[in-house]
Amino acid sequence: MFRAIACTVTIAAGPALAQTPCGGPFGGFVEALSAEAVERGQKPDTVDAFFDGIRQDQSVLDADRRQGIFQAPFIDFSRRLISSDRLERGRSLGRDYATTFEAIEAEYGVPRGILLAFWAFETDYGSFQGDYNTANALVTLAHDCRRPELFRPQVFAALELFAQDAFDPDTTTGAWAGEIGMVQMLPEDILTNGIDADGDGRVSLKTSPRDALFSGAAMLADLGWRAGEPWLEEVEMPTEFDWYETGLETRKPASDWAALGVTARDGEIDAPDLPASILLPQGKDGPAFLAYPNFPVLFEWNQSFTYVLTAAYFATRLEGAQIYDAGNPEPGLNGAQMVRLQEALQARGYDVGGADGILGSGTRAAVRDVQRELGLPADAWPTSELLERL
């Protein structure tokens, strides 16, 4: 059995501890963050050494604003990410690290397909792990007022790793959003779930596949992954159906969906007794999936619906599933049209998380409501007809 290396975590703040506000001059923000770190219990010398070389990184902010790939619909996105080479390499690595994956599944219940999918998508099986300075990236994003609540805790987590001699603010690099290693974990997740699986005394997520895979599995288990249960299954839908019942918001036992005419594409529903949702990433005429309770856990790794669905589907392919039936979905909206749609939905009072041109869960839920209101098939797939009606 492998366990996380013991850590003395000092990142939690007491209720009366003031938080450094985002924005303002960057230098002043770093000074205030340093003072807060000392208040949290870190030694002044450690804090000074950590923040001494911190610089604002404009390229990180540029990358944060530039995420157009997530505007692609599921079919296009999945075909872009899943190549025959990536599939074969994943299967080959599954064989090469069979002993590791067997130990992981026995310990945490996380199957190899899931870990291989994130290993593939996050860093192309470790070949490109990002070259952004991690400390600079985290402090830059904590200072930026778009999502400071996400990144401030990661700064203090990185500082704690530095205090434990497990992070170098000058040389540690990773993704623009501060993730580190082969499966891209944030500092808080490393503190909580970092595993020294190869027994060398360090959690080496950048150089040790065994450490990275065990740590990723420990994180998923900590987030609620349920051992021995499926996560996604392709299904075929009946012609007549209440499409408003689809989406992550509605769960029914898979056997109830079967009673309504939903059938597994491979012949039998995987887990008829488990609650499941029906996902139609491109509407009623495109691919269809049953999403089981393990599926939402994956959103803790990435918030993009299209990314998570693609990773979950790729994991099933790595474990033997067939290529999905793409169907013949209606053309969707381009980025500019999606922004107009989101603005129209916001004008109607829907919270879609901003007009960013990305068809996320909030926009899908709003689209489904408006489709039903307008007498259209409520399958959460926005089309030009819907945009014109609005």
UniProtKB/TrEMBL annotation:
InterPro entries: Lysozyme-like_dom_sf, MltB-like, MltB_2, Peptidoglycan-bd-like, PGBD-like_sf, PGBDSf, SLT_2. It holds the Pfam family PG_binding_1. Residues 1-18 form the signal peptide. GO terms for biological process: peptidoglycan catabolic process. Keywords: Signal. It comes from the Bacteria. The keyword Signal applies. Residues 335-390 form the Peptidoglycan binding-like domain. Residues 29-315 form the Transglycosylase SLT domain. This is Lytic murein transglycosylase. It comes from Roseivivax halotolerans.
